[in-house]
């Protein structure tokens, strides 16, 4: 039976989540908080993808495969990011993103 | 056959020169052998050709000739070759004999066989040395000339030049031989080049003869341009050509072409045969070694000038018949010849150096030959040339022998005297008998001692020609010159050989080596005997007994026939009086001369000073020509034009170039070009520095920028892809 919640509600919800994540990524000082923002953006994208799959391509599993890949990529990327942050902290004892600016010109 | 042999005559001396100069320079003995073999082969070939020539009937009609085409020309090629006619034959005879004798003499003159010497410098005459002879004794002896091979190389080249001149059949190769001899004359007069006097004399000889040669060359060119050929037979044995030359007028002074060309060719002779006014080089040329003086200035080179005018006598006398008025070149030659003969004879009276007397004597005798041609006595001029070569070479070689003896005396006694001054000699007839007798033979020949000397016959022929042609002024001048000749010859012989030695050096003199005296003897035989070939038919007593072989042989060359020999006894009588009288007078004045007294001629006072200083001709030339030439060279062209004007212009151009360069550098190079380069580099650096803060290293800033760019690009895409 077709769901009764319109697609647009999911899309708006995903967009809102995305913007929240974007704001967090751009405005937070702590590196881990930035990663959390990134995580939020990726999950918002996942919601978007699943909403489109459910409503438009239901029996076909192609959309599911896409989502699975995005999940996996997000997880791997978070792991790597955290490893980098730990490495920076061990080296320079900082956690504020702005202070990691040795690659400046 | 004879012609081919004639082509080969000049070759051995040329090869000798080349081999000595290039290969055998270090070996003195080998060098002189090469030179002697060269001269000997040339002598042999000349004698063969001479004998063939005199045994040929009608030689002048069909002379030995062989020519090759040499220079391609538009119409006919210019040919060069050899020609043996009577004049060539007799010239070959005396040139070959005198050259051979002088070469042999030179071996002894330059002291071959003596040691090398420890303080001889090349370019100076060799000095004696204290040499070791066996068993520890030391003796002063002469040393060999250090530049011995060079001498033989040069005289071989000289012999080549002379033979070329004699055998050639055209004026061009004659001129080539002429100039080769001029070069060798320069090289040989300046043989002892470290002596300033020798260097100056060489330059003087070369420049004086070169001046004359310039005129001769103009004559050669004029002849070629008018007749189209330079071949002797084509011009001189061809009455048509001669007639055309005598009748057409040249653009110069209204002379006929024959007269003009004749004068120009005679100008060459004035220089080469040392006639007035270009006689000044010959006395100075005595700076060279005596064999050089003998060869160049007695027997061969100065004879070349007379040979030229004798050869060109048909041209010079074109339009003249015996007994008629002389042509202009003949008149000029008669005047200059007679004047020179008298002029030089007066100067010779006062000279003290034994070689200078002979030098002026040569000038005087050459004047005789030129005057003889001027009065038309063709055979007489050639005859005198022939006999003069022998006795003058003999006299010069004899004087060289005397000088050698005196220098030997100077070496032993170490007196500081001039070995060539006759007033330091005396009594040498006992010390040097062979030299004395041969010198006496030569001196008597020069004075024209009757009957037994060759000079008598040739001089008598000239006087006869002058008198018979009616040229009384020339006759008187030549007779006076003959008187003075006999006087100064007797003076020379008396002072040198007779009496008692006046210095210690003269007491110590001794006879020269055989290699020097044998040539003297040979030449003396010729000086005595060769005149008997030319006894004129009108001579009282002997005339007609022996035919006048010489006169007939040469007169066959004249197209118009020779002047008839005068039957008058006046010239004969005059020549007897002047020669015997002059000899007696000279002997009488000087026989009592003792050492330390002054020359009896000095009683002539001012005249003596004038003659001793050679009429101040050299001083005049120095003032009139040499000093202005130096002024032009040193002041006018060097200081003013060269340094002031030309260098000034060049320096100004240089300074201008430097100024222009500085301006361009300061105002264009540095600001503009450097500015552009520096500007680009500096600008780029500034741009980079200005863009550097963009890369702050802060990640969130990068992400902010990324988001902004994505939004902007999205808007652009939306506008252009959706709305359009």
Tally of DSSP β-strands of chain B = 4
Mean pLDDT of chain B: 88
Spatial arrangement of strands, main beta sheet of chain B = 1-2
Enumerate the spans of chain B where pLDDT stays under 50 for 5 or more consecutive residues: none
Provide the structure class of chain A. Answer: mainly alpha
At CATH level 2, the architecture of the domain at 29-96 in chain A is Orthogonal Bundle
Radius of gyration of chain A: 17 Å
- What sequence of helices (H) and strands (E) makes up the elements of chain A? HHH
Q: Helix count of chain A, per DSSP? A: 3
Q: What name does the CATH topology of the domain at 29-96 in chain A carry?
A: Helix Hairpins
Largest sheet of chain B: 2 strands, antiparallel
Count the strands of chain A? 0
**Radius of gyration over C-alpha positions of chain B, nearest whole angstrom:** 38 Å
Largest interface: A-B, 12 and 13 residues
Q: Would you tell me the overall average pLDDT of chain A?
A: 91
Beta percentage of chain B is under 5%
């Amino acid at each position: 039976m077709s769901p009764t919640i319109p697609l647009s509600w999911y899309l708006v919800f995903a967009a809102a989540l995305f913007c929240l994540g974007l704001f967090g990524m751009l405005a937070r000082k702590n590196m881990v908080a930035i990663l959390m923002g990134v995580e939020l953006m990726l999950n918002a994208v996942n919601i978007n993808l699943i909403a489109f799959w459910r409503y438009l391509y239901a029996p076909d599993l192609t959309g599911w495969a896409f989502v699975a890949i995005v999940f996996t990529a997000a997880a791997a990327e978070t792991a790597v990011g955290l490893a980098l942050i730990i490495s920076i902290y061990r080296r320079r004892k900082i956690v504020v993103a702005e202070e990691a600016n040795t690659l400046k010109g | 056959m004879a012609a081919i042999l004639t082509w080969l005559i000049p070759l051995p001396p040329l090869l000798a020169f080349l081999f000595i100069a290039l290969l055998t320079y270090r070996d003195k003995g080998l060098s002189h052998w090469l030179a002697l073999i060269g001269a000997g082969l040339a002598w042999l070939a000349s004698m063969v050709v001479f004998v063939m020539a005199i045994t040929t009937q009608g030689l002048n009609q069909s002379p030995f000739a062989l020519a090759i085409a040499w220079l391609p020309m538009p119409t006919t090629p210019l040919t060069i070759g050899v020609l043996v006619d009577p004049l060539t034959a007799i010239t070959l005879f005396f040139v070959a004999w005198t050259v051979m004798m002088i070469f042999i003499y030179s071996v002894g003159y330059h002291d071959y066989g003596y040691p090398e010497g420890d303080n001889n410098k090349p370019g100076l005459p060799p000095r004696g040395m204290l040499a070791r002879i066996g068993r520890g004794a030391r003796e002063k002896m002469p040393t060999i000339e250090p530049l011995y091979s060079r001498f033989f190389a040069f005289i071989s080249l000289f012999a080549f030049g002379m033979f070329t001149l004699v055998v050639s059949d055209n004026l061009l190769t004659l001129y080539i031989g002429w100039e080769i001899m001029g070069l060798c004359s320069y090289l040989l007069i300046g043989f002892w080049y470290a002596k300033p006097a020798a260097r100056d004399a060489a330059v003087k000889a070369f420049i004086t003869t070169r001046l004359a040669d310039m005129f001769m060359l103009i004559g050669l060119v004029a002849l070629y341009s008018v007749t189209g050929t330079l071949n002797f037979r084509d011009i001189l044995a061809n009455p048509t050509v001669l007639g055309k030359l005598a009748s057409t007028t040249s653009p110069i002074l209204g002379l006929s072409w024959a007269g003009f060309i004749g004068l120009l060719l005679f100008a060459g002779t004035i220089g080469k045969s040392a006639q007035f006014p270009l006689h000044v080089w010959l006395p100075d040329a005595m700076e060279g070694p005596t064999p050089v003086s003998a060869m160049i200035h007695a027997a061969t080179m100065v004879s070349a000038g007379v040979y030229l005018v004798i050869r060109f006598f048909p041209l010079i006398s074109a339009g003249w018949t015996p007994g008629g008025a002389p042509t202009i070149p003949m008149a000029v030659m008669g005047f200059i010849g007679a004047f020179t003969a008298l002029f030089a004879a007066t100067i010779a009276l006062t000279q003290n150096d034994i070689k200078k007397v002979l030098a002026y004597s040569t000038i005087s005798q050459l004047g005789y030959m030129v005057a003889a041609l001027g009065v038309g006595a063709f055979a007489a001029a050639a005859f005198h040339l022939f006999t003069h070569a022998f006795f003058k070479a003999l006299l010069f070689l004899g004087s060289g022998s005397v000088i050698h003896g005196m220098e030997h005396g100077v070496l032993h006694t170490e007196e500081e005297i001039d070995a060539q001054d006759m007033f330091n000699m005396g009594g040498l007839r006992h010390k040097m008998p062979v030299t004395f007798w041969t010198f006496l033979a030569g001196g008597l020949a020069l004075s024209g001692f009757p009957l037994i000397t060759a000079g008598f016959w040739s001089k008598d022929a000239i006087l006869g020609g002058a008198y018979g042609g009616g040229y009384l002024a020339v006759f008187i001048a030549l007779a006076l010159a003959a008187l003075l000749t006999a006087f100064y010859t007797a003076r020379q012989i008396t002072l040198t050989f007779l009496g008692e030695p006046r210095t210690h050096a003269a007491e110590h003199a001794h006879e020269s080596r055989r290699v020097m005296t044998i040539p003297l003897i040979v030449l003396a035989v010729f000086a005595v005997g060769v005149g008997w070939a030319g006894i004129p038919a009108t001579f009282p007593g002997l005339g007609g007994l022996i035919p006048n072989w010489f006169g007939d042989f040469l007169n066959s060359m004249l197209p118009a026939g020779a002047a008839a020999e005068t039957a008058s006894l006046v010239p004969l009588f005059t020549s007897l009086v002047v020669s015997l009288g002059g000899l007696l007078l000279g002997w009488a004045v000087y026989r009592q001369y003792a050492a330390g007294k002054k020359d009896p001629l000095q009683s002539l006072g001012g005249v003596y000073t004038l003659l001793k200083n050679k009429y101040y001709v050299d001083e005049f030339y120095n003032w009139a020509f040499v000093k202005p030439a130096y002024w032009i060279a040193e002041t006018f062209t060097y200081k003013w034009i060269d340094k002031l004007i030309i260098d000034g212009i060049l320096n100004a151009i240089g300074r201008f170039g430097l100024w222009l360069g500085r301006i361009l550098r300061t105002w264009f190079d540095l600001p503009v070009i450097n500015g552009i380069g520096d500007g680009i580099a500096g600008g780029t650096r500034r741009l980079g520095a200005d863009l550097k803060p963009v890369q702050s290293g802060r990640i969130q800033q990068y992400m902010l920028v990324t988001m902004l760019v994505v939004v902007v690009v999205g808007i652009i895409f939306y506008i252009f892809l959706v709305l359009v």
